[in-house]
């Protein structure tokens, strides 16, 4: 594509800018605008000059705004700066590797003159320059080897015998003329067996991968065809016993009276060097893998710490809590898979953490996965990781949650939300304790203790064909039920007092008190949102408190202006709920949450938060159940 400079396209920066062979842009960083671009920049970036002038600087660098801000601020602060960190998007969609060198321009507003250098083109020029230098360096090497050949002709074999490198000569037909002792030792052939034979067909006939190596491709033969010195690394020579070893060699042409007579080849066995390089690469890869894993673990743990805003233990003295603690003591010392069931907001994750902290795996991380929040297309990548280039957007290797949890505990929250067609992949990993990253053939083994949680009736899901029976049995090794607050009302005052202390610290208020009347009132309520709802009610009451007295926006009972209680649980009825009973129960809980939140679905204290659901999920359920928003 050719961009010709017309009179209309000429800029205020003059011909030195417009006709410069280097790509140049003028940025106005404070308004995120490309003020001007020359023709060289248009060719390099794949846009017309007019298009570039109409383009924000950030649009040329999608997803790189932080790096762009750092670069422009550095130029403004220092007067000039350069970077390789910016990779602009070409007009055809590909990413460019460029060096940015910028300086400030005088006057107002603040402007930067940015010169762009194509790093790939620079690398090609470097390779061409090294090749040219190598060709020039070939002359003294040729002269050195020619003197060796003349010494051989005069019968001086001291150098050949003393050399630690393998040396042999071939004539213009590729027939071996001599072989030194070092070459004999490395190749396993006696000199008498090789002299007079086609050397390529004897020791150089096959590539390392087993494919045939034709004569006409051999750099050794090329030396006495084109008269150039050929230095080669990365090939193999074959021994008499059929094994091969990596070599680097130099093939130097031999002339007499201007006529090419053959070549002398000097080679060395680089097995030890290659092994050392392989060990180094392996060690560096392992370091990179460990670094990435530690970075992700660190980021994950920081995220978990930020999300932890309250208790570190299970609070309560009710029979239900005492039974739960006994179950935790029993199962924590084993590696058995645990299935925690219970309504939303009953503290299923807290139970998982208690099991993990009481187990032998406490020094390794507890990795939580919210199965309902993972898009279907990213399920495998999120669980098992992916290799660089495995799919569009996979710009680097990624460690999956199973690998992060190696040696620790993996907590699958809302496991009932995993799509049916993806449950088989999860089952395979749970059974075999092995997996492959997406786009990678290497099988990785993991030692993971699994805890799953759900607010669904998985037996009913299995019966309806929405959950695999074999996966259900694999998860339900040790079931633990998390009781709702309405079944352990004696624990409500203790939990409320705990939340009140936390709220008082956050609000910097020391006058907040929970009276006995408050405790009785809280205990009478049925808490459809369970512990999560109780925490929100306490925090709201603390915010609205006057002179230390809490103000609860809470009815005396679920019958006071609230929808009727949900149908009894299957355990109370002695049978599973019917579909109509399930719908009635879901409707009742949603209507109760809407009442408490003043009809709000989204935001802090909204119905979605009270029920522990995504707002979009709650909207969908309201639509299915025919519930309007008040």
Automatic annotation (TrEMBL):
Q: Which terms under GO biological process does the entry name? A: phosphorelay signal transduction system; regulation of DNA-templated transcription
State whether keyword Kinase applies. no
Q: Which residues form the Sigma-54 factor interaction domain?
A: 314-543
Q: Which residues cross the membrane?
A: none
Q: Region (Disordered) spans which residues?
A: 554-582
SUPFAM superfamilies, per the entry:
P-loop containing nucleoside triphosphate hydrolases (SSF52540), PYP-like sensor domain (PAS domain) (SSF55785)
- Gene3D superfamilies, alphabetically? 1.10.8.60, P-loop containing nucleotide triphosphate hydrolases, PAS domain
- Which PROSITE patterns does this chain map to? PAC, PAS, SIGMA54_INTERACT_1, SIGMA54_INTERACT_2, SIGMA54_INTERACT_3, SIGMA54_INTERACT_4
Give all residue intervals belonging to the PAC domain. 230-282
What this protein is called in its record is Transcriptional regulator, Fis family
- Which organism is the protein's source? Methylorubrum populi (strain ATCC BAA-705 / NCIMB 13946 / BJ001)
């Amino acid at each position: 594509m050719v961009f010709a400079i017309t009179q209309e396209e000429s800029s205020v920066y003059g011909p030195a800018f417009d006709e410069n062979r280097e790509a140049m842009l003028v940025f106005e960083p404070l308004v995120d605008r490309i003020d001007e671009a020359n023709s060289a920049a248009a060719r390099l970036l794949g846009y017309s000059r007019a298009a570039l002038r109409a383009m924000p600087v950030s649009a040329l660098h999608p997803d790189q705004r932080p790096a762009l801000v750092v670069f422009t601020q550095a130029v403004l602060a220092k007067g000039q700066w350069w970077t390789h960190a910016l990779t602009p998007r070409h007009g055809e969609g590909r990413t460019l590797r460029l060096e940015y060198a910028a300086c400030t321009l005088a006057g107002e507003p603040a402007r930067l003159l940015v010169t762009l250098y194509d790093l790939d083109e620079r690398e090609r020029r470097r390779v061409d320059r090294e090749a040219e230098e190598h060709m020039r360096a070939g002359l003294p090497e040729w002269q050195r080897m020619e003197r060796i050949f003349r010494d051989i002709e005069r019968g001086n074999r001291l150098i050949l015998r003393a050399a630690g490198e393998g040396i042999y000569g071939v004539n213009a037909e590729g027939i071996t003329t001599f072989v030194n002792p070092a070459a004999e030792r490395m190749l396993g052939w006696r000199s008498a067996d090789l002299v007079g034979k086609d050397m390529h067909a004897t020791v150089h006939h096959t590539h390392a991968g087993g494919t045939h190596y034709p004569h006409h491709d051999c750099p050794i033969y090329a030396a006495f065809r084109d008269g150039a010195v050929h230095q080669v690394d990365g090939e193999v020579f074959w021994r008499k016993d059929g094994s091969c070893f990596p070599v680097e060699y130099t093939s130097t042409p031999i002339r007499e009276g201007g006529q090419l007579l053959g070549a002398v080849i000097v080679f060395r066995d680089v097995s030890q060097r290659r092994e050392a390089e392989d060990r180094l690469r392996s060690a560096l890869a392992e370091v990179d893998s460990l670094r990435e894993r530690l970075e992700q673990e660190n980021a994950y743990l920081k995220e978990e710490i930020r999300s932890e805003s309250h208790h570190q233990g299970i609070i309560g003295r009710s029979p239900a809590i005492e039974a739960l603690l006994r179950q935790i003591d029993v199962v924590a010392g084993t590696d058995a898979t645990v299935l925690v069931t219970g309504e939303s907001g009953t503290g299923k994750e807290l139970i998982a953490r208690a099991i993990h902290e009481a187990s032998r795996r406490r020094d390794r991380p507890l990795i939580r996965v919210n199965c309902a929040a993972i898009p279907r297309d990213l399920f495998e990548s999120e669980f098992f990781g992916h290799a660089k280039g495995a799919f569009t957007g996979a710009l680097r290797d990624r460690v999956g949650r199973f690998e992060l949890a190696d040696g620790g505990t993996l907590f699958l929250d809302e496991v009932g939300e995993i799509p049916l067609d993806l449950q088989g992949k999860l089952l395979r990993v749970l059974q075999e304790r092995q997996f492959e990253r997406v786009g990678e053939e290497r099988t990785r083994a993991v030692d993971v203790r699994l805890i799953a949680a759900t607010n669904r009736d998985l037996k009913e899901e299995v019966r309806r064909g929405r959950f695999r029976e074999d996966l259900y049995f694999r998860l339900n090794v040790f079931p633990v039920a998390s009781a709702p607050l309405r079944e352990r009302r004696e624990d409500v005052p203790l939990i409320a007092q705990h939340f009140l202390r936390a709220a008082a610290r956050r609000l910097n208020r020391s006058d907040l008190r929970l009276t006995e009347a408050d405790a009785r009132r809280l205990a009478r309520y049925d808490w459809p949102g369970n512990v999560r709802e109780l925490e929100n009610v306490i925090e709201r009451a603390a915010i609205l408190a006057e002179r230390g007295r809490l103000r609860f926006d809470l009815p005396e009972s679920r019958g006071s202006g609230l929808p009727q209680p949900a149908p009894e649980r299957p355990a109370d009825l002695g049978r599973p709920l019917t579909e109509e009973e399930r719908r009635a129960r879901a409707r009742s809980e949603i209507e109760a949450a809407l009442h408490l939140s003043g009809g709000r679905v989204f935001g802090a204290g909204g119905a979605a938060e009270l029920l522990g659901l995504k707002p979009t999920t709650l909207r969908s359920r309201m639509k299915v159940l025919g519930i309007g928003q008040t």
